[in-house]
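Anyone have tokens for Amino acid transporter transmembrane domain-containing protein? Sequence:
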Amino acid sequence: MSEPNGLEAGSAGRPSKPLDSPPIAQDAVFGEITEEGPNYRDVGWLGTVALMMKTQFGLGVLSIPQILDSLGIIPGIICLVVVAAVTTWSNYVIGTFKLKHPEVYAIDDAGELMFGRVGREVFGVGVCVYWIFCSGSGLLSTSIGLNRMSAIASCSLASFRTLGKIKWTAWVGVGSVFTASMIATIAVGLQEQPSTASKTSYWASDYKLVGNASFTKAITAVSSIIFAYDGTPGFFPIAAEMRNPSLYTRSLLICQSAITAIYIAIGTVIYYYCGSYVASPALGSAGTLIKRVAYGIALPGLVASTVIVLHFSSKYIFVRILRNSEHLTANSFKHWATWLGCTSAITVFSYLIASGIPIFADLVSLIGALLGTFMSFQPMGCMWLYDNWKNGREQPTLKWILLSSWSILVIVLGSFLMVAGTYGSVVNIIASTKATPGSSAWSCADNSNS
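Reply: yep, here.
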């Protein structure tokens, strides 16, 4: 019999009882939950909204104006809405898949159900590398604004063991990035011309309704849009730590609607006033003073993004190591040593990524193309087919035919964007490394753009 929060009472059939702590509930992923150990099922639907938004809203919004510069306002908004629709469907599939298969914690568990051991390892390695790259991007963004101490602060906060304990950072992060973005948006509308434009007696924005970008620039811009929405793999662990997973869809729709509206509003206004002189990240478009003020306000949000993705990657490895062990939910030495070891190691690897490719826009597009697409499109199409193909084929309906066709289309589209976007991103990284001073790997040059 299930409790109202979605946990199953009792401990029958479990091989691992957490030391001497009395069990208060049992979870298909974490095993017996005790009062002495961490409560991994303590995130309400509002906390879920905050965590979902913070996995996506942060770094992505800072690149939207430059995306519009590449594609033009009209094609850019169309691409943004399409990507939003596809990722919303992908995220919805995660929620339904989790309800049908409560033993799923991360995308590798889904991969094992669909493709066996090979699927588990491919998706497991993919999601781990993906989170490391995302953490590296977060450390890079904070280093642009602060240039020191970002790794230490992020690692410390990421070391809280449950999402329920760090959901406050998501609220703070969403609020700070939104406030900073609004300050920059208002400032660019009030200034005479962007700070990056040459000082002339007359200046007018050269914004484009329809752009004429090359294939490489266009596909890179689309990859950056994907990055702005590719928190999708993080929705697996978020769903796993919800008190009531049946409220997942409510949180998802609020999250996706809000960030899409914010992306369109902020991206369009900043690009309209700045044109091709928009800075990347966009906080630098309104001059040195406003940029410093905006970064000061945004830094908690940028740190929060890094904290959450560091937590995701560390928690994935932690659960993988201790799953079905009494140490997963007990305050034992092995529990703490494993957990702190995971957070520290992931932070070090992420720092190396941030140092190796210290170019914000190119790193964003590379993540979106190579890893974000692979983690956000193809698996969800396969997951829907896994749950619905066999039964639907026996008695096909129009709805089943349409959804099956859609799932296959998502798989094909994701594969194309992954290959084409990766190519475009690599080309741009090579060009930027040659053209931008201080952009070589592991350079000690100041990247604060002050």
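The mean pLDDT is 82.
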